[in-house]
Amino acid sequence: MTLADNSAPSPVINEKWVLIATILPSTIAFLSSSILNIALPNIQKEFNATASSVFWVVNIYMLFLSALILLGGSLGDHFGRKRIFMIGIWGFTITSFLCGIAPSIELLIIFRALQGIGGALMVPGSLAILSAVIPTERRGMAIGTWSTFSTLASIIGTPLGGLIVGADLWRVLFFANIPLGILAIYILSRYVPETRDADASTAKLDYGGALLITLSLAGITYGLSEIGTLGISDPLILVTLGGGLLTFIGFLLVERGNKHALVPFYLFKNRTFSGANLLTLFLYAALGASSVFLPMNLIQVQNYSPEIAGIATLPIGIGIALMGRWSGRLVDRVGARPPLTVGPIITGIGFALLGFTGITGGADDYWLTFFPPIALISFGMGLVVAPLTTAVMSSVPVTSSGTASGINNAVARVAGVLALAIFSAMMMAIFTDNLGSRTSTLPLDSESRAFLDIEATRLAEASPPPNLPDETAQAIVLAVDESFIEAYRVVMIIMGVMCCVGGLFAFAVIDHKQIA
User: Taken in order 312, 314, 318, 321, is the CA torsion positive or negative?
Assistant: First the structure.
């Protein structure tokens, strides 16, 4: 790594400002990945949107972020980490403003896609700049500080989002990114030197691989997301799914023969690295999809306010934060395999129990209904996060640590993208079928049934047809809630099984001696 201009005198580095400049963008990136979930019911109501459109508000951001994050890191190594980092922050900040003023759900989805591209340029630069600028003897403390603030952002993001959304100010969630982004840009330009990888200038950027994986994820995600609405035999579904699978095969072929591949496949020859990433795929698929479905259940079916719904999910972040250091020390004593076996199984039990929680009496019943399974998920994930990172980083040579970390982060984000696509389609299919069955005996004319069929695309936000007797309308409202709970139950149980399978797989594959 070298400074951008070796002929100029090196600037005096103020490490405090470097930390602030890297923590601020990381904070808004973490918040944008999670805080918006609480706002989805409000967004759906304001735009009168279908459930599929609302899911795309989340998924399109994660799709571009996960597909391009490895390329974003490579661009920083080539052209300057600070330069690419600042371009990413500018892009993220401008698109945050556009998201905040979006007049329709369609434009919001487009602006979120652009925000994901900005995030892909921004996210990798944060730790890369810290590692390049902070001296080795203080780097661990700096990264620890960065991690602490990132974790705090994840913890306070959901309840803070609940308070903002509860005041019907969901657009503020986007506008809040603007001053933080501008402040980070100012500090970066004034206090942080440019660095780049001296060896990267001789390497070629893998633009082809980045394009293919983006097209592949887009096709597969769209196809899976819309199956529940259009049906698996629809030509558009067949084209997008088929195109996505073909471009993924093309991605594998391109990467396999590329010396400068985004994803060096030789790393997966290590069983521990492969096993840890597969476990990451299962766990973060469940965690990512549940972070969307659980708030929808709490707000739209259980009648929690957005403020209370945000607080209700808070224990998960608290558990991960409090147990991180303890589980890290546990790895030093017993190795990574025991916590990576037990933790996912406990997490899986928590998800399954959430599925068995039906319609409750509201927030007053929280402690006896939703809190116990959420506490299990909190404890299980607290056992997993630090050992999982240790397993990934300890299974590869030090020279490949940055690439390994990037791959694992990309796997976690891709897991959330695909899981939300698959489970949203599953939710839609089960909900529609159940709603049809539960309302089949009600005295509805053909016009009312057609209206209800259209409303079913909105999931729990579906409304009864107008001008019905109160008794019939109330029966439809109950049918909507019960149909959502039935679909939610199936999805959560499947998530629980996935986590348990991941734990058993970790027991079989993770090399106990390698990470003892």
Answer: positive
Residue 441 contacts by C-beta under 8 Å, 6 or more apart in sequence? Answer: none
Q: Which of 456, 510, 119, 120 is nearest to 342 (CA)?
A: 510
**Interatomic CA distance for residues 106 and 98, integer angstroms:** 12
Interacting residues of 292 by C-beta distance below 8 A, sequence separation 6+: 37, 40, 55, 58, 420, 424
Q: Which of 269, 273, 265 is nearest to 511 (CA)?
A: 273
CATH of domain 269-516: 1.20.1250.20
What's the CA angle centered on 51, arms 60 and 315, to 5 degrees?
Answer: 75
CA distance linking residue 264 with residue 257, whole number of Å:
10
What is the SS3 assignment for 247?
Answer: helix
Q: What is the SS3 assignment for 8?
A: coil
For 192-270, where are the alpha helices, taking DSSP H only?
207-230, 235-256
State the angle between helix axes of 371-394 and 314-334 in degrees (0 to 180), rounded to the nearest 10: 40
Please give the Cα distance from 389 to 271 (Å, whole number).
15
Question: Cβ distance 334 to 391 under 8 Å?
Answer: no
Which residues on neighbouring strands pair with residue 329, listed in sequence order?
Answer: none
Amino acid at 421: A
SS3 of 414-469: HHHHHHHHHHHHHHHHHHHHHHHHHCCCCCCCHHHHHHHHHHHHHHHHCCCCCCCC
Cβ atoms 175, 100 nearer than 8 A: yes
| Helical packing angle, 105-133 and 15-34, nearest 10° | 150
pLDDT tens, 20-35? Answer: 888 888 888 877 767 7
Quick one: residue 50, left, alpha or beta (phi over 0 = left, psi -120 to 50 = alpha)? beta
Q: Where are the domains of the chain?
A: 7-205, 207-257, 269-516
For 371-417, the pLDDT digits (tens) are: 999 999 999 998 998 888 788 877 877 666 667 777 887 888 889 88
Contact (Cβ atoms closer than 8 angstroms) between residue 219 and residue 100: no
Within 169-206, residue ranges assigned H as helices are 172-175, 177-191
Q: Tens digits of per-residue pLDDT, 406-465?
A: 788 788 888 988 999 999 999 999 999 999 999 999 999 999 999 999 999 999 999 999
Kindly report, residue by residue over 334-347, the tens digit of the pLDDT: 888 899 999 999 99
DSSP string, 255-284: HHT-TT-SS-GGGGGSHHHHHHHHHHHHHH
Contact 283, 447 (CB under 8 A): no
Beta bridge partners of 435: none
Q: Which CATH number fits domain 7-205: 1.10.8.60, 3.10.450.50, 1.20.1250.20, 1.10.10.10?
A: 1.20.1250.20
Alpha carbon distances (Å) from 364 to 290, 304, 351, 372: 22, 9, 21, 14
From the list 282, 270, 343, 284, the residue with the least C-alpha distance to 502 is 282
